[in-house]
Amino acid sequence: MNTGSSLPRWITGLTGWVLPVFLIILWAVATEYGWLSSQILPAPTDIVRAAIKLTVSGELAKNIAASAERAGWGLLIGGSIGFLLGLFNGLFRTAERFLDTTVQMIRNVPHLALIPLVIIWFGIGEAGKVFLVTLGVFFPIYANTYHGIKTTDPQLIEMGRVYGLKPWQLFSQIIFPGALPSILVGLRYSLGLMWLTLIVAETIATTSGIGQMAMNAREFMQTDVVVLAILIYALLGKLADTAVHFLESRILQWHPGFRHR
Length: 261
Fold this sequence. Notes:
The chain is mainly alpha-helical.
């Protein structure tokens, strides 16, 4: 909804950071005056020092790269399968009858509960971690793609048929654009699950990654590094969400809900 604000876009874009910055200031004040024990939550300056130390040693960049690679492969594989299967089941009633019930049954099994089986199947290598991320991102994209296709306005489809549009033209000009808002919601949700799954997956006997960095820090009671790892996950999740938001503002200009973003 457009509120008619005349503020520059870059200023309105910064409003989402007001609360996080306020919380960081409050956190710094609480630790400075002893209201919050450093054993519970280290001061922001301690975390910055830990980040600088890990950056200089190269450990931080190595772990972020390892986590990003696992997340990227999981998103690519799980997202592609979920998107294609959602399209297939949404467009073809026969496929929906045969496949959707099975997919919904599997969806209700918590994918993180499969960790013992994943270790048996794949061992403790990279394949198991990517498999878990793949499962995590598959279902939101599948469900939202399927929902978007099924909820396309039937009157628009009928109008397209009246104007003589062929099946491919109906899909490309009416059905798929109508489903795009729902598909992007699925992508947004799956990105959150991607990082959540990765946090758990990287605790499975790994030698690199943000999760592994946090587990090592826990062994040595390095609370500042543990909190740093959590903040990195949060920032990566925010960057991913911002990327989808930018994508929405570019490809959904025709949609009234996204036109003035």
